[in-house]
Specification:
This protein is an alpha+beta fold. About 40% of the residues lie in helices and about 20% in strands. Among the domains are: about 190 residues, tricorn interacting facor f3 domain (Immunoglobulin-like, Sandwich), CATH 2.60.40.1730; about 130 residues, Orthogonal Bundle (Neutral Protease, domain 2). The strands form 8 sheets. An 8-stranded mixed β-sheet has the order 6-5-9-3-2-12-15-14, with no helix packed on it. The chain has a 5-stranded mixed β-sheet with strand order 17-18-19-21-20, covered by helices on one side. Strands 10-11-16-13 form a 4-stranded antiparallel β-sheet, with no helix packed on it. Helix 2 packs across helix 3, helix 9 runs parallel beside helix 11 and helix 23 packs parallel to helix 26. Bound molecules: O-methyl-L-tyrosine and zinc ion. O-methyl-L-tyrosine (0A1) binds next to strand 20 and helix 3. The site of zinc ion has 4 residues, from helix 4. Its EC number is 3.4.11.2. It is an enzyme of class 3 (hydrolase).
């Protein structure tokens, strides 16, 4: 139990800072077991707030050893200031002064990976959100923007590369083999965008000519053994830079743009000004070692961080409650980019699948919060799917409502108006309103109300009046602290289909003539009717196309309607959606039948849809692969009130096997045709073919004929890329062919043992395999030399994969999975509280399970909260989950 209750911080308490810092001069003296940080700040009173009175200056600081303080070059006595565990407080004598502070820190002992730390042999930083205060005393808040000049001094032999933000302006040698480099960043920035790197890194270099003809020096720094794995990241960077010019009119501003890959990193990457620091998993990609999915992730994350240079850095957040200002917008930007680079429909399907299985679950759980939260204890806990993914959906809806052109006018005004400022989500929406003469007052409830809205739709056709009415009813379930919800603006992109599946002309009752065949209806009321006139025959509506709003929509479609839509809807996304919904309905029905102890029978309509897909050679193979994929266990759990995970798992596996057996004859020739042994290519078309081929392999391996085993083993051995090799390994690991499985796993480990990212895949494939005994396997794997509790990627790929992806084993009725996870969280919390808090997610979902499991899960949460010296990170998640 904690003795001191951590403090809750509220948005409503926001105040401007008492002081500004115009200039920040830093010198880092890096040594093996410590670093000396000299800071010299030019500080000015915030006169708007205080007139002439001089309040105390209170700087944030944590885990710092304070060595000296000087005010305008006068060294202060320790009686002149107060230091506690979180701050340094002193009384200025004038409205403008220089403050010089020296601190000593211990980067090697920094296992939380926040502030300045060591990853392997290199020094690096992570300052977002509040890591800078672990480097030196500072006003560590995003509305304090300052010009940084940074000098890094270190041993030349071990640290030939010394980097920070901006441009290098001077360098030199010191006695005894030490050297130094000074970097100057001309753009004022908050401390969370500060970065420093020192190491023995190799450089991959390229260049980019901007729209105004400036030549930008592009640099990727990695450890020498990874040199061959940077081409895709570099290419993605150049395409991102061009895309941001073309689509948003945004040009890069500094002369250098740098990316550094580090192995120990809490998140995916960080958008530090001019010096992005990346988890190596989001930079490195080579066909031999990375799957197509990993390639796509690298492309998306490189783009995301690059796009932050405008949406995040040039215009930043006033306070951390506004986090979605930069994250929601930037996630939308990176997904638009990925859609443009790949298939728009497939990209949207992947995004929606992820959102519904994960963010919807967060929105229905104890940590549910609005896109702009009202309060937090630890801001790190609010880098969530709601702030990122739902936040992106909110901006996407604004895009849908304004249209591409209106949206672009709005973002131009936003960037123009707020360049160099720290602003709020309201400022963002205001710019979109002002540029378009729009009123988003009601729309802004998306920022303040948590929970996933329900949208129940009904359609009525009046044959004599030739009208078709759509009745929309919206509601939103209560979430923590919000019992009542007001109606939100829900854009519904839709069409009406005739009996041939053609889109019909659309005319609303208050319109004089029909116009177009697709509309966006803005549902704004709790209950609202839209009536279409001149409707020649009873239509089938195609609703919420492209998932135009993050809601749970229902419409009383029959299964035959869904089959029709899955085959005929001209909108590709909604074809997929219809096949998903059909599969969900069938699986849910079978779960009930299985629980009642009755025999299972597969609705032939699902087979019919799948058979048609397999026969249609005109379809995009990636799209076919998406449609052949059954809804995940996680999504089925999310949809259930109380999830019977054993039944869900059993039924889903059973349906997969039925499908495989029934379609084996159709699947074989298609697999063979796709398995054409052509040389590897990373093109979108080749990725699509691999995706379908490997989906088929997964099904074929379920057939009792056993015909697929040899082919799968051959694919594993002979593959000329990691996508095919890994797909074969997954199929083997999830099969009952023990001998082949063991051989493949040990062959794989031996071959890739010195590639940490490949070993991550090896860990997670085993951790996610649903056969009995998974927990013991995971415990054994924790002893493997490639595993480490100090490396977030390893924790995610072994412990995270087990708890989040292996639902039957994690939820074993004896509670062993829960106990194991709680033990790991307690073990990790003193080392890395951010990752420990993130590992809690599956335990926070206890309301979804039966009473016995609920009791077991809550018992583990209670055991965690009773522990001594819990971090605020873990304390916040556990205490909110137990309410
Ligand atoms: N801003 C980064 C990701 C990031 C988030 C949180 C962090 O610490 C709590 C660190 C980095 C991005 O969106 O890419
Ligand atoms: Zn981001």
């Amino acid at each position: 139990m904690r003795t001191e209750q951590p403090k809750t911080i509220y948005l409503k308490d926001y105040e401007q800072p008492d002081y500004w810092i115009s200039e920040t001069h830093l010198t880092f003296d890096l040594h093996d077991d410590h670093a000396l940080v000299h800071s010299r700040l030019s500080v000015q009173l915030n006169a708007d707030k205080h007139g002439q009175a001089l309040p105390a200056l209170v700087l944030d600081g944590q885990n710092l050893e304070l060595l000296s303080v000087a005010l305008d070059d006068q060294t202060l006595e320790s009686s002149d200031y107060q230091v506690d565990a979180h701050s340094l407080r002193l009384q200025p004598a004038s409205a403008s002064f220089d403050l010089a502070v020296t601190t000593r820190i211990k980067p090697r002992e920094n296992t939380a990976l926040e502030g300045l730390y060591q990853s392997g042999a290199m020094f690096c930083t992570q300052c977002e959100a509040e890591g800078f205060r672990k480097i030196t005393y500072y006003l560590d808040r995003p509305d304090v923007m300052s010009r940084f000049t940074t000098t890094v001094i270190a041993e030349r032999g071990d640290y030939p590369v010394l980097l920070s933000n901006g441009n290098p302006v001077a360098s030199g040698e010191h006695e005894g083999g030490r050297h130094w480099v000074t970097w100057e960043d001309p753009f004022p920035k908050p401390a969370y965008l500060f970065a420093l790197v020192a190491g023995d890194l190799c450089l991959i270099q390229d260049s980019f000519t901007t729209m105004s003809g400036r030549e930008i020096d592009l640099r990727i720094y990695v450890e020498p053994e990874n040199r061959e794995q940077c081409a895709h990241a570099m290419d993605s960077l150049k395409r991102s830079m061009r895309w941001d010019e073309e689509v948003y009119g945004r040009e890069y501003d500094l002369d250098i743009f740098m990316i550094v890959a580090v192995n120990d990193f809490n998140m995916g990457a960080m958008e530090n000004k001019g010096l992005n620091i990346f988890n190596s998993s989001c930079v490195l990609a080579h066909a031999d070692t990375a799957t197509d999915l990993a390639f796509q992730r690298v492309e998306a994350v490189v783009a995301h961080e690059y796009f932050h240079n405008w949406s995040g850095n040039r215009v930043t957040c006033r306070d951390w409650f506004q986090l979605s200002l930069k994250e929601g917008f930037t996630v939308l930007r990176d997904s638009q980019f990925s859609a443009d680079m790949n298939s728009e429909t497939v990209n949207r399907i992947e995004g929606v699948t992820f959102l519904r299985a994960n963010q919807f679950a967060e929105d229905a759980g104890p940590m549910a919060h609005p896109v702009r939260p009202d309060s937090f204890i630890e801001i790190s806990n609010f880098y969530t799917l709601t702030v990122y993914e739902k936040g992106a959906e909110v901006v996407r809806m604004l895009h849908t409502l304004l249209g591409a052109e209106g949206f672009r006018k709005g973002t131009d005004l936003y960037f123009d108006r707020h360049d160099g400022q720290a602003v709020t989500c309201d400022d963002f929406v205001k710019a979109l309103e002002d540029a378009n003469g729009a009123d988003f007052t009601q729309f802004k409830r998306w920022y303040s109300q948590a929970g996933t809205p329900r949208l129940a739709v009904e359609g009525t056709y009046d044959a004599s009046a030739r009208t078709f009415s759509l009745l929309f009813r919206q509601s939103c379930p209560p979430t923590p602290g919000q019992s009542e919800k007001k109606p939100q603006v829900i854009p519904v992109r839709m069409a009406l289909l005739d009996a041939q599946g053609q889109e019909m002309p659309l005319q609303l009752s208050d319109e004089s003539r029909a116009e177009g065949t697709e509309r966006v209806l803005a549902v704004t009321e709790a209950e609202q009717i839209f009536t279409f006139t001149g409707v020649a025959e009873e239509p089938l509506p195609s609703l919420l196309r492209g998932f135009s709003a993050p809601v749970k929509m229902t419409y009383p479609y029959s299964r035959d309607d869904r089959v029709f839509l899955a085959k005929h809807d001209p909108d590709g996304f909604n074809r997929w959606e219809a096949s998903q919904a059909l599969a969900v309905e069938i699986l849910q029905g079978l779960v009930g039948i299985h629980r009642a102890g009755r025999p299972l029978m597969l609705d032939q309509r699902l087979l019919d849809v799948y058979r048609t897909l397999l026969a249609d050679s005109t379809l995009d193979p990636a799209m076919v692969a998406e449609m052949l994929r059954l809804p995940s266990e996680a999504y089925l759990v999310e949809l259930a009130d109380v999830a019977d995970i054993d039944a869900i798992h059993y039924v889903r596996d059973w349906v997969r096997q039925e499908l495989a057996v029934a379609l084996e004859a159709e699947m074989w020739p298609l697999y063979q045709a796709l398995n054409d042994q052509v040389p590897y290519s990373p093109s979108a078309a080749a990725v699509a073919r691999r995706s379908l081929k490997n989906t088929l392999l997964g099904y074929l391996m379920l057939c009792p004929s056993g015909k697929a085993l040899d082919i799968c083993v051959r694919q594993f051995v002979e593959a000329n890329n990691m996508t095919d090799r890994q797909a074969a390994l997954v199929a083997l690991v999830n099969s009952s062919h023990e001998e082949q499985k063991r051989a493949a796993l040990s062959d794989f480990a031996e071959r890739w043992q010195s590639f940490p990212l490949v070993m991550d895949q090896w860990f997670s494939i085993q951790a996610a395999a649903s056969q009995p005994g998974a927990l013991q396997r995971v415990q054994e794997l924790m002893q493997h030399p490639a595993f480490s509790m100090r490396n977030p990627n390893k924790i995610r790929s072994l412990i995270g994969a087990f708890a989040n992806q292996n639902l039957v084993n994690f939820h074993l009725a004896d509670g062993s999975g829960y106990r194991f996870l709680a033990d790991r969280i307690l073990q990790l919390d003193p080392l890395n509280p951010q990752i420990a808090a993130r590992l809690l997610t599956p335990l926070t979902r206890w309301r979804k399970y039966d009473e016995a499991r609920q009791a077991l899960m809550k018992a583990e949460l209670s055991r965690i909260i009773a522990a001594e010296n819990l971090s605020p990170d873990v304390y916040e998640v556990v205490s909110k989950s137990l309410v």
